[in-house]
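G., the chain you wanted modeled:
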Amino acid sequence: MRAAVIFGLGTSPADLKLFQAGSATGWSQGLPTSTGDADAILIFGGDGTIHRHLPALVRLKLPVLIVPSGSGNDFARALKLRSMRDSLRLWRDFESGKMSARPVDLGVIVPSAAPERTHYFCCVAGCGLDSAAARSANRMPRWLRGHGGYALALLPLLLKLPAVSMWLAQINGADRTEAEKTTLLAAFANTQFYGDGMRIAPEADFADGKLDVCRIGTLSPLKLLSLFPTVYFGRHLLVPEVEYSRAERVHLQTETPIEIYADGEFVCETPAEISVAAGALRVICSPP
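Predicted structure as tokens:
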């Protein structure tokens, strides 16, 4: 067995020692050049580290094990990996041949201004209130981002961020629905979680070939504040101003360009198309 290891911000080769102990695996640091150079890839980091490496991971098609070590670990959470020990247990099973990698979907963003560019994401893409919170959180120290930074960034925005006129076309096979509505937040989810544990898309399944679309319309500041804690439990779907649907592809346009963030990272501005790359990433995780 040959394994390549990627260390994200705040991690180091010292974190690998548990995995090396008693292992016959040959280890190398950094992305392999080609598929034949490794049998698996371990990523020590969070959603941002995974996001930045997705194009190479899709190209290499190697099994990937996530070791949650970042300020935001929502993709690991979706894989039911809560700690380094969880990842170590799966790695031992994979090394011994008891477990194989599982294909999961990725989201894909193609900006209308640069249609030749493809941006993958593993968790959730969003715009409006979400993008403003992500931008603010990214300016915080890493330790603060890892201890509720997204929520801290979001709270002051609830009282002052204006809604925008947003046009969405949702496509499922030959079916197409279009709607232009005033929108505070739109999220396009491959997994259930973002913002370090917010369950924005409680019905999302990263193996169904679809995005879960959560759209929040105009709310008073007071009602928006009361809605905020319910997102951690997925109960925001009970509010009439919250729309929830599934789509294979979405075309997104706003009156004036606004930022789209995915996995906590800036991607592009509207307009854009967001879709699914079915089974694009092979992950080492427990069976569904």
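The chain has two domains: 2-105, 107-278.

Shout if anything looks off.
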